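Sample entry follows:

_____
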Amino acid sequence: MQTVLAWYDAHARDLPWRRPGTTPWEVLVSEVMSQQTPVARVVPAWREWMRRWPGPTELARAPIAEVLRVWGRLGYPRRALRLIECARSVVEQHDGVLPDDLDALLALPGVGEYTAGAVLAFAHGRRALVLDTNVRRVLARAVAGQALPAPSLNRTERERALHLLPDDDSTAAHWSVAVMELGALVCTAREPNCGVCPWEVSCAWLAAGRPADVHAGRRRTQAWRGTDRQARGLIMARLREVADGQPVEAGELKACAARAGLSGTGGAPDPDQPGRALTTLLTDGLIATDDDGATYRLP
């Protein structure tokens, strides 16, 4: 354990939400933004977001269209809507102060087990279970001897992580961020740099000869190009370009969506995809129409 903690102290990235004085709300926003998004893209978006809406009170009254513009190309823009909902709940139910109780955090919109644990550990220095993709991968390899964890978090993983989690608050929080950073920088999914890993000597996966992923057949893999996600992203990008409240004709937005996958090597684009992308964006509350679908705008 001490070697992992020492490694973190020497190699941790200087991320803005790790600096002294960062509020619990700022930590929560960083965690939501970082889900399935590279940190390099998150940092500038987080800084601009916090400049505009430093706390839940400011975000709760922010125009949705402006929030979506600042969210930009982070991907999965429904996360931005969940942050607005979360901010409104914090204002209405907790007087604008993010709670520091696990159950209260879990009751907030868009806050799951991981995000709640991250807030408790990284914002309050508390002992809390923090199991993101990076942590799960490190523990699967170093302790269980597996190339990668199972596709879904299971009871065995939770018990393993809790067994390793130090009893005192400060060391537990230190451990959680250290293991997470180890997974992000060294024990990566495709090309782990085992030669510089502080866990190398006792890593069960290395001791077993780096066996292949036993769960490979259960994993869903899909390229982004040509997917509905790309089509939706092209529509959102066009709407973010226009002035606030200005609508764009449905035909133009469908033409944008139809570019999904055009430069790929797959088959012909799905002719139903543009319309499907518009429909799902409308259902998710990410776009709006005032004329039964003739034109669309940001909400």
In short: The chain is about 50% helix and 0% strand.
